[in-house]
Amino acid sequence: MKKLLYFVLIFYLLGITLNFVNALDYNSYDNIKFHIKQNEGFKNRVYLDTRGNLTVGYGHKLSKSDGYKLGDYISNDRIDRWFQADFNTALKCARIFLKNDYNTKELIVITDMAYNLGCKTLNDFWRLRKHINNKDYNMAVKAIRGSTYYKQVTNRANRNIMLLNI
Questions:
Q1: What angle do CA 90, 134, 23 make, to 5 degrees?
Q2: Which end of the chain, C or N, has fewer beta carbons within 10 A?
Q3: CA-to-CA distance for 19 and 27, rounded, in angstroms?
Q4: How confident is the model over 44-80, as pLDDT tens digits?
Q5: String of DSSP letters for 92-140
Q6: Taken in order 68, 72, 42, 157, is the CA torsion positive or negative?
Q7: Which are the contacts of 150, defined by CB distance < 8 A and separation ≥ 6?
Q8: Cα–Cα distance for residue pair 122/125, rounded to 1 Å
Q9: Please, what's the largest Cα pairwise distance for the chain?
């Protein structure tokens, strides 16, 4: 009888702990930023991305008018300011995409996709928008898996798919 009571108590506490962790993980912009930073990686020297664009920090695309060249060092403060601006743009795009009717996991996934793809390209995912708005995550996952985005950044896309399936 004692073993059963301990088992029930541990199971109960574990359930509370898992719910608490899930609530903490997905309820703040800091966690969305963390998710994006993990997906992007970090370099404080200018490098070429997969499309040949000069890039730095957490995937910040530089323009020719910025005046940087391959290998230039960029301060972490400058990178943090660029990241915040890029994040704000992606978050605004995600909110519009989701029509302000979303849960936190949807906001994380769509903000990450907006950060990676840009708002214009994200808006081409009309099937994904429809399925997420209908809370049909199975079809949303199919929309992601059937996209060029999935083929280009498979690991990142799979991490986003896992979030939708939680």
A1: 60
A2: N
A3: 12
A4: 999 999 889 999 999 999 998 999 999 999 999 999 9
A5: HHHHHHTTT---HHHHHHHHHHHHHH-HHHHTT-HHHHHHHHTT-HHHH
A6: positive
A7: 144, 157
A8: 6
A9: 74
pLDDT tier, 1 (very low <50, low <70, confident <90, very high otherwise): low
The residue type found at 142 is: K
* Helix boundaries (H) for 28-75: 29-40
Q: What is residue 51's three-state secondary structure?
A: coil
CA–CA distance, 33 with 80 (Å, rounded to integer): 11
Q: Which two tokens stand for residue 151?
A: 């083929």
Quote the DSSP letter at residue 65: G
Q: Taking the model in full, what pTM does it have?
A: 0.81
Instruction: Count how many Cα atoms sit within 13 Å of the Cα of residue 49 in the half-sphere of its side chain.
Output: 18
d(CA 139, CA 165): 11
